[in-house]
Write a structure and sequence with these properties.
alpha/beta; 5-stranded parallel sheet; 5 strands
Length: about 220
């Protein structure tokens, strides 16, 4: 289900209308709104998603009238595609720092098509500054990394490919293999084949989670 953040009444009505309908498994929200997603103006929408059992999906791509990079509009798709990471980092930072996860403890957020190898580094940076600037954000009672691990899911496409493939295992281990879901991005030309998406062999229990069980659990597909 796709909603708009900027018309609260319509968004809330659509969420309530689809609640309980097994055909709808999540709420997709455009990642670039008029303000950062953690702002209070969007809080009722996020709370309604959680209250009705809908994970929030943030899928990068398309045009919302806002530049896809922090420095303005890119000239080439080669610039834009790697820059999706910037939007994802901004979304996670806003949700954490604005206290969304503190206020809505049942909220689940899925980051789609933005990679995920950047997530540990962002969490480390947020933790470091939280220790120094806690007086500015007294509403954050737990470390940002704890909140990220509890509330954020990521998808594999487009997956990063480190020079040392084994580094991918360390990244997944930090995020938690129970928070990573395989995605193909079908039918785009750069879609991923599950046989070749990972350049390193996953432990069998991780593979079972990433390729099947995590999505079944999150979206209540049983």
């Amino acid at each position: 289900m796709q909603i708009t953040l900027e018309h609260e009444a319509s968004a809330l009505a659509e969420i309530e209308r689809r609640a309980g309908d097994p055909r709808f498994a999540q709420v997709n929200i455009p990642p670039r709104g008029l303000e950062p997603l953690g702002r209070h103006r969007y809080r009722r929408i996020l709370a309604a998603c959680a209250a009705n059992g809908f994970p929030v999906s943030l899928h990068l791509g398309g045009s919302s009238g806002h530049a896809s990079t922090g420095g303005g509009w890119p000239s080439f798709y080669h610039e834009e595609h790697p820059s999706y990471v910037q939007s994802m980092q901004t979304l996670v930072t806003s949700l954490v720092c604005e206290g969304v996860f503190e206020e809505i403890p049942d909220l689940k957020v899925v980051l789609v098509e933005g990679g995920f190898a950047w997530l540990p580094a962002l969490a480390w940076r947020l933790d470091k500054h939280w220790k120094r600037l806690r007086a500015e954000v007294p509403h954050l009672r737990r470390a940002p990394s704890e909140q990220i691990r509890e509330h954020i899911w990521v998808t594999t496409q487009p997956i990063e490919e480190p020079e040392r493939p084994a580094d991918m295992l360390s990244t997944i281990e930090w995020i938690g293999p129970e928070r990573v879901m395989f995605s193909t991005d079908y039918p785009h030309w750069d879609q991923d084949d599950p046989r070749y998406a990972f350049k390193v062999r996953l432990p069998e229990d991780w593979a079972r989670l990433i390729y099947r069980e995590n999505a079944r659990t999150l979206y209540r597909l049983d």
